[in-house]
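Reviewer 2 asked us to include a model.

Predict the structure of this chain.
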Amino acid sequence: MAALAVGASCAETYARMATPYYAAVARLLAYGHPWTIVSVDVRHGSSSPGSALTLISDVRSAAQDARPAARVVARVQVGEAVEAPVVFWTMLLVWPAASLRQRLLRCAVGVPVFLGLEAVTTVVQLVHTLPATSALIAGAASPITGWELWSRFLEAGGRFVVESCSVVLCIAIAGRLGSRASPGNSACPP
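Predicted model (structure tokens):
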């Protein structure tokens, strides 16, 4: 309950702090595509209460075109953006550990896993409309891209599954690293 209360009260602050990361990953995903990320920021919603993480991008027919064919505005509610850190870090920190060293190792492994988690959840939900827009500009009647299917999976409860699997991955990697570093183990694997 405490984690949910902190998450709900700090959602907008977290989204504002994470915006540079979201923008960097969105630009990385746009590299090599006819998409230009114009901005990523937190804005107060006009049609819904609360704030939304907003991505504005230009989509061109071809990467070398001077003028964009469309401007895309994508939004993710800050409540969705804060879900990943609340679920991931709460599960990782409350998972039983035999020692403080094991818990610290899990947290160290958790940082890069968490950054990847944010990329495949929040950032993909921000950019998933760009491939569909490109397909529409190219003449596709009703494009359903892999990005769109992934976004639908996340919105239908898959986000929690991905967050939970990320925690289990951290625990497995940390356990493997911890067993290799234990003083009783030999330097050569069996």
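Confidence is low (pLDDT under 50) at residues 186-190. The chain has five helices and three strands. We have added this to the supplementary material.
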